[in-house]
Amino acid sequence: MSRELPRLANPGALLTDLYQLTMLQAYFERDMLETAVFEFFARKLPAGRNFYLAAGLEQALDYLEQLRFSQAELDWLGGQGLFKPAFLDYLALLRFSGDVHAMAEGTPFFANQPILRITAPLPQAQLVETRLINLLHFQSLIASKAARVVLAAPGKRLVDFGLRRCHGAEAGVYAARASYLAGFDASATVLAGAQFGIPLAGTMAHSFIQAHSDEVAAFEHFAHSLPDTVVLLIDTYDTEAAAQKVVELAPRLAAAGIRIQGVRLDSGDLGAHARKVRVILDRGGLSAVTIFASGNIDEYLIQRLRQEGAPIDGFGVGTHLGTSSDVPALDCAYKLQEYAGTPRRKRSEGKATWPGRKQLYRRYDAEGRCCGDTLTLADDCAEGLPLIQPVMRQGRRLQPSPPLAQVRAYTRQQLERLPLALRSLEPAPDYPLEIAPALRALADSADRLSGMP
After folding, report:
1. DSSP string covering 379-444, please?
2. 307 with 401, same domain?
3. Helix, strand or coil, per DSSP, at residue 99
4. Do 138 and 185 reside in the same domain of the chain?
5. Could you give the CA distance from residue 21 to residue 27 in angstroms, rounded to a whole number?
6. Which end of the chain is more exposed for a tag (fewer CB within 10 A), N or C?
7. 109 exposed, middle or buried (CB, 10 Å; 0-12, 13-18, 19+)?
8. The pTM is what?
9. For the Nicotinate/nicotinamide phosphoribosyltransferase domain, which residue ranges apply (predicted)?
């Protein structure tokens, strides 16, 4: 991807929580600058998810490489009455100089499995918490939702229609990236095409039809304007009557060298309309014209339509995808696991963590499907494939982030290697996770050091 393509504006170092800065000042004043280790993970999976899909690493690394306070930001902080001049001078020179280990984007993960580890001086590792969670949480959330849609719609064309109801511009663009990563074919979000090279797709709005005094005139106008991508929206007035108009219009367009590629349904009983429209199109010699559906689509509706045999060739998925409406948040955390060479462990009720720098090993059965993981210490070994790999050292990427098309292909392979039960929309048994003896021993040691029983 060319770096000359338009990109969302860097929001700057102030996109953080206030307590990150107040803690940093306290660390600075007490000279608490030794190495800290933080890990990002999900605490548990909700009832509506059998797995999560890691996403957002490229943007996380972009953020870490670009992290710095501008003079305008420092001037503003100086006027808030909270921060001392010496600390502001420290912030002026602050750059991320740490190491990052992470799962590859597109890797399925489960509860209590770290997908990213930060090793850096404590103030740096603390400061980046908010934005890293912001980036990794959202794209992993949307990629996981998109993966469910992909698994529910084998062989169907899927287009992201979510921008207009996403929670802000950045969310819309990153939702397009996450859904394409998970296997969607295209997005209607133009900036996502420019920024990430995602194929773009779209048809027309009902307002385009309504702006014309005649529905056929609207179809014909649009077809001549975009002769290579003619998909006509046919449910503005009477869906089946409009399908018949398409049949009558097709020969006239064909004489001009224009082929109607598809029709779109956006309302009503999509299955019933699709069956009637398919009959009309086939009877009119338009068996090659596809039927594309949109309007309140999610993976459950797609599954039901497929089970009913609805002749729908593709889906535009918007609101439910861009907001992950059934599970709108991932129960995730970014927690301190080690400081100054000493393991640290949170023991809060329901939120206990495993201490230390960790590695996750994934095992596969004879059919090549993952069958269980082992969580252990980074310097320990276990059976399986290690999933957490170094991606940044001393604040610089070890290599460029892979092209999105490559990540997408890797994701497809990973989804194919999931057990069939996890690929289903139905709740599945918990995926097996073994906690290695070495990690349990470190947790006991951390408890003793903290005076816990």
Report:
1. T---SSEE--EEEEETTEESSPPPPHHHHHHHHHHHHHTS-HHHHSSS--PPPPEEEPHHHHHHHH
2. no
3. strand
4. no
5. 10
6. C
7. buried
8. 0.95
9. 157-337
Q: Do the beta carbons of residue 103 and residue 407 sit within 8 Å?
A: no
Cα separation, 65 vs 230, in Å, equals: 43
Tell me whether strands 186-187 and 157-160 are parallel, antiparallel or unpaired: parallel
* Range of weakest confidence among 6-20, 25-39, 121-135, 264-278: 6-20
Residues 262 and 331 in one domain: no
Find tokens 């301190």 and name the residue.
Answer: 336
Whether residue 265 lies inside any domain: the answer is yes
Q: Which residue in 157, 44, 55, 62 sits closest to 115, CA to CA?
A: 55
**Residues 6 or more apart from 76 whose CB is under 8 A from it?**
14
CB contact at 8 A, 97 and 121: yes
Q: Which of 322, 352, 367 is the last residue of a domain?
A: 322
Q: What is the pLDDT of residues 150-185, one digit of tens each?
A: 999 999 999 999 999 999 999 999 999 999 999 999
As a whole number of angstroms, the distance between CA 232 and CA 247 comes to 12
pLDDT over 50 at 1, yes or no? no
**CA pair distance 346, 356, nearest whole angstrom:** 11
Number of domains in the chain: 2
d(CA 348, CA 397): 35
Q: Tokens 């803690």 label which residue?
A: 23
| pLDDT tens digit sequence for 26-60 | 999 999 999 999 999 999 999 889 999 999 999 99
Could you count the other beta carbons within 10 Å of the beta carbon of residue 201?
A: 21
Closest to 262 (Cα-Cα) out of 228, 237, 232: 232
What is d(CA 246, CA 176) in angstroms, rounded to the nearest whole number? 31
